[in-house]
Amino acid sequence: MILENNKRVRAMGILGVCALAFVLMLAGGVACKKDSETTLAQAAQESLTTIKEGLNEFKGTVKVASSKYLYIPEIQGMDILVQGMPDLAGLEGKAVKVVGEFNRERPSLLVANQIDTQEDGSTTTVFNRTAEPDYSDYVDLKERAAYPALKIVNVNKTDAWEGRAKGKVFGKLQKQTVTEGGASQDVFRAAVNDESGKLAGYVILGQFTDYSAYYLKKLRLFDSFWFYLNIKNTVDARTRVKTKDLFNADIACVGLF
Fold first, then answer.
1. In whole angstroms, what is the distance from residue 106 CA to residue 187 CA?
2. Were both Cys, which of 1, 60, 206, 245 would link to 72 (CB 3.0–4.6 Å)?
3. Is the same domain home to 103 and 200?
């Protein structure tokens, strides 16, 4: 009897120790998880680019260089305007330091004042701004609101775009090479679907601004996006029915929203 009681006490003691060890392990795991989450949150916060009014200095690798604009992923949510650098495309893929000016009137744009490349431990200044920035083709979020979404149903419902100076369509960029007068040229179109997902027609795209050309390159991994259009003339009825070409337009910009 005494032996059985001793066994019972010993077993209860072992169970108690195991339970305590489990609780401590669980508490330690929760603490480690919280510490890990806190560390990750802090690291994410520190990685966010902080931008202040006036001059800012950033380092990163150029992902896209087109026309007069740069995209550097480390400078989150910003496009970089480089005014007056003819060999801008040569910066693509290079590590750079950018000194740029930020103005809250253009919240997604940084104007480069100086750009240094950083290779093999050496730094070389490749750009110093000497001209005033040209914002004529830059379309900010407020200006995008002036481009209403066009509800295109088919080639005969021309009231969807006629009488409008501006509009936007969601579609896919297509390129066709045609020959006229012995010379070949590329014709670009935006293929637009109706609400059911069927092809409604094509918008013939004319001039591309520097800003829109830059964004087409920046969004090259996406299949479809919004085209912000300055609407021109409607294609004549007979041609619309035959080709599904709807109207001509110049591109102000493109985007995912």
1. 33
2. 60
3. no
Q: Which residue type does 54 have?
A: G
Rounded to whole angstroms, how far apart are CA atoms 213 and 164?
A: 23
Q: Number of folded domains in the chain? A: 2
CA distance 174 to 205: 10
Look up residue 21 and give its DSSP letter: H
Beta carbons of 92 and 141 less than 8 angstroms apart: no
Residues 60 and 158 in one domain: no
C-alpha 17 chain-centroid distance? 56
Q: Which two tokens mark 80?
A: 């970089």
pLDDT in tens, 89-138: 999 999 999 999 999 999 999 999 999 999 888 999 999 999 999 999 99
Q: Is residue 136 part of a domain?
A: no
Cα 71 to Cα 133: distance, rounded to the nearest angstrom:
17
Strand, coil or helix: what is 22? helix
Beta bridge partners of 56: 100
Q: Is the pTM of this model over 0.70?
A: yes
